[in-house]
Amino acid sequence: MHNCCQPIYPVAGIRTIEHAVMPTAQPPLMERAGRASAEEAVRLMIDRPGPLLIACGPGNNGGDGFVMARHFMQAGREVVVAFASNPDQLPVDAHKAYTAWTDAGGQTLSDLPAPPPGGWALVVDALFGIGLRRPIEGRYADWIRSLNALPGPRMSIDVPSGLCADTGRVLGIAFEATHTVTFIALKPGQLTLDGPDHCGEIVLKRLDLDANGQLPAQGWEVCTKLFMHALHPRKLNTHKGNFGDAVIVGGAPGMCGAALLAGRAALRVGAGRVFVGLLDDRGPAVDQVQPELMIRRAEHALADGNAIAIGPGLGRDAAASALLERALHSSATLVLDADALNLLGSDPRLAQQAREREAPMVLTPHPGEAARLLGISTDEIQADRLKSALALARHFDSHVVLKGCGSFIARPDGQWRINRTGNPGMASAGMGDVLTGLLGGLLAQGLNMDDAVAAGVHLHGAAADLLLTRGIGPIGMGAAELPDAVRQILNQWVATPHPPGRGGPAHP
Ligand SMILES: NC(=O)C1=CN([C@@H]2O[C@H](COP(=O)(O)OP(=O)(O)OC[C@H]3O[C@@H](n4cnc5c(N)ncnc54)[C@H](OP(=O)(O)O)[C@@H]3O)[C@@H](O)[C@H]2O)[C@@H](O)CC1
Ligand SMILES: [K+]
Predict the structure, then answer these.
(1) Is 0.80 topped by the overall pTM?
(2) What is the residue range of the signal peptide feature (predicted)?
């Protein structure tokens, strides 16, 4: 669990911070970055004798690699540096680092050497960092392919080469790191899409800079500190009326399970009463697993709650559309998911009503639903998930959760968050319905939208992570298994509101 929130900057923000501090920074930032990388490498090489291999590229990322190499050589460790570029074309700082390396007696090889008999103690990728501008091909692609095939730990400096630091897209081919040492601040591309698969464990080295002090961040990592102030231990003198009424609307024929899953999640997150409105006339009158749920016909349920979550298994027929229209005209706080989003994407009139709605609302699309809402392809959504989430939040003037690896929370004012809990066990049917129910249940209890969305998304992933520790998944993890884990985690959080975690600045 992360209990401190880190600011996250796209490349443009990192550049702004660098330019502000570079002229006066002593020691220079590259010296700090190279030393910090060396410190981390030492940790990874405990009990691993033998030389380390550092592959240096044509820019300042390569410069970090030269500084790192120098530190190891001065410490008496054997280092092999591969560098295929013209040193005279290195940028100023990297050229200084190259010269310091060769002045200290270091050499470079223009091609990757064969591994020594006992293998490399560590393979370091200092080819490209935040300056990657186009897909990698030719010699560097061959290098990355060879490096990825080597056994043992693999460390990337700043960003795995080939990974777009802004979007998490692989441009051509990307280094598959087991560890990434990143500088100044986290970057969005490390935390979403293909970023987590390529970064491995991420270690942040701030280089003694206060990024948020230099440039107030728009984006933050979701952590418990963001929302714990809104979750309180229960007083003794309480009753169900203190914890709100959540309404789930959905469950067309063949899809009742989706609405029930959402209802169960709303109960387990603490809603006082949960009503499930089903469209299917022949749907169950009672949920045998969770008989606490009050099941009724969808059109009768809408009036019951202060928070309405509409969409799970809703379908897209005229009855579904009419229910959505009624929900949009209600004064309840709304969660829109699944077919509610598909209806908005296909009916401009409903979309207009959603845009004009004044009461708080959150949309929780997966990439396919987001694509329908914006009238573009799923690939275009995934090409820049942050940009897509922010565009949706602006368009609908509401909070948006763009689900997927590294779910983004976007606000209409351009602020955003990214969540790091969760695991691939969640790539299964019904997980989105559970999130919808969690949000409905938290909003019914009176949490404001910022707190409810951050808490719901974080809790959703943390519950799946708890199941993983019990050997449940990732393969075969079921959405119905999540609500009980949600209850366990939430009660732990409330009992211990400030669990120990990494150090670092608190979110303001
Ligand atoms: N600035 C600072 O103060 C600090 C920076 N730091 C470090 O610097 C890194 C950023 O350095 P950077 O800006 O030099 O970019 P970097 O990632 O080395 O790549 C640029 C080079 O790659 C080339 N190139 C790009 N794409 C390519 C491709 N597909 N295939 C082939 N070539 C390609 C590009 O060539 P060009 O596009 O100009 O032709 C250029 O030569 C940052 O991640 C951190 O590690 C730290 O020391 C802290 C202080
Ligand atoms: K790199």
Answers:
(1) yes
(2) none
